[in-house]
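Think of the structure tokens as a kind of shorthand, similar to the way a musician reads notation: each symbol stands for something richer, in this case the local conformation of the backbone. In the example below we present two proteins back to back. Begin with the first one, reading the sequence and then the tokens, and try to describe in your own words what changes along the chain.
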Amino acid sequence: MILEKKRNNPFYDMEECVNGSKSNHIVRHLISAINSGCIKVNDKLPSINEFLSENCNYSRPTVIRAYQKLKEKKIIESIHGKGFYIYKAEKKEVLLIFKQLSYKEKEIYDSLSKILKRSANIRLLIHENNPDSFINFIKQANEFSYFVVFHSSFNDNYYEQHIRNKIPPNKLILLDSKLDNNDEIIAGVYQNMEKNIFSALKQLYPLLKKYKKIIVVHEEKETALKEIVLGFEKFCSAHSIDFQFGHEVNSIPINKETVYINFQQKVLAELIKRIKDSKFKIGKEIGIISYNETPLNDILLEGITAITTDYEKMGQQAAYMIMNDQSLRLDNSFYVIPRKSV
């Protein structure tokens, strides 16, 4: 099929290149159009002259370089006397690595696979802290185009060392948190936890100001959650609210005028039971906030307020990096869902 010259044609209707190489911009635009199904194998592309007549912001050498790059990638081929044609749309091989498959991991998987369904084969590894299955997949680095690793699910330096030493940096996309040394050459979609928590609590302050204390309940020790703790401490200091960190739900005090912030669903159930036994009124005398949204938050206690990163968007941003062969370091969205529990 010959691509028609009209404004809604994906090859002519290009966004302006704001940053970076214009030839790479053309390449990414065409690859994205192929992966989304707007341009198909065996479609004829516009000639260089036709392209220039519709895109006045590009020079002839730029378009030639772009077409040459596409030929080198074997995405297009030139047939003498006929022009340029889409040669193939090769699917990428993507390995998505999770420790477990909870609600947030499912959100990431669903949004990533929805975007990449035409352009990638996605394999899912749920390692459940099993080093053997994890290492066996890492050894197959040559078989995969990209490794997408939900990094915050690792609490062992053993895994992190293998991620760093066995996966080529240009194939690695980290989700949620960076490696310990804050390596800026590795692509990823990250949470700025200290900033996000402070901003979310500030948004909730009109509801929180009736409380005198915030207790964060998390099974990990404070040292493993440095950014999270800093965010809470900064907010509490700025608003003269007491702060406490507790990692055993059965040992923390249940007191009036206190907000409890829960990080795990299994902790939430026990926390709700203890608060109900105390007879304090939830949302008036005692508050509960969940860190990360789940379907249960909308059902329990007429709704539990949540502060959460946007895991759907996290998966989408990773997918677009893979689709367009980009290496970016992006902050992910974070938002508040106010409900009756505060």
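Once you have a description of the first chain, move to the second and do the same.
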Amino acid sequence: MNLVSYVIFSGCVCSLVFSFTLIFSRNNQLANRFLAGIILAFGINLAMVWILSQSFFDQVPLLHLLPYGIGFGLGPIIYLYIKSLTSNEKLNYWHLLWLTADYIHSAYHWIYGRSFPDHIWHDIADKIGSVSIFLIIYYLWVSRKLILNYQTQLKQKLSNIEQQTLNWLNQFFLIFLIVIPLSIIIWILVLATDINVNNQVAAPVVHLIIIFWLGIGGIKQPQIVLKEINLNPSNETSKEYQQHLNLLIDCMESDRLYKLNDLNVRMLEDRLDLTAKQISEALNKGLGKNFYSFINDYRVKEFKSRVSETNHLTLAGLAYECGFNSKTTFQRVFKEITGMRPSEYIDSL
């Protein structure tokens, strides 16, 4: 088995393993089924490379039932994955109709076989397939906007956001949106200059990297919470949101709920008989803060008040007791609020 065959075989096996793992995952169930479809599509694409290289289409015509590529279906499935992951809105499954365009090339070979590669309809099918790159770019762009919108609302809902940011997907999209235009430029240069570029190894390796990135990221992603909360502006008066703000401050100072590591806006909704929208607006208009910064201000104050008199806890232990869920988050937030690292603050006492 040569290197290319090994990469292709590894990618196909990994796509199956990751897909089945995601399908039966208890977290983000609907979203993970879309992600499983994406990963499986990359695996099928790799398998097609191997099937073509071995001339199996001539021996098993039924293989033409497989799509020749995933260009038209990839973008819509990615979009539906992100939409189902970050929102409770009803999904528009009509986006999946683009999948049928991936069968145009297959349909040609199903009808004409593989004896007429220079047929005009074969040329048309190839040209239609090349257009799919623009559809992918469009859906990646729309999907990234969904993630950015989701991220802007996170700090209005949660006091610890690190496991909910979807940064691994945002990074993936950014890389993809850079790589695709570069690939188009290289493709144009190749056509214009007749440079021979051998992507026999590069393409399968890229597929394998994508399969691992999406598979591991999807499996590690915890359940997305509070995505059903709508934070669109309301028409409350300044007197009303000031009353709500007073309730929030009284609750924090008397009950010290900020010490709960998993504190979120839903918990305060139930306790104060306010909606998430009312809590968010009270903090934004009254203090110029979001929920995340409001709660972490109290946590930092709690740490500063206890650090000089606590000897039995480590720095991380004390931070956890104050409501932070990790040492890294605590150090970053502490410096953002105070302008110094925790160790520098302790040294200054």
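Compare your description with these statements about the second chain. The domain at 238-348 is CATH 1.10.10.60 (Arc Repressor Mutant, subunit A).
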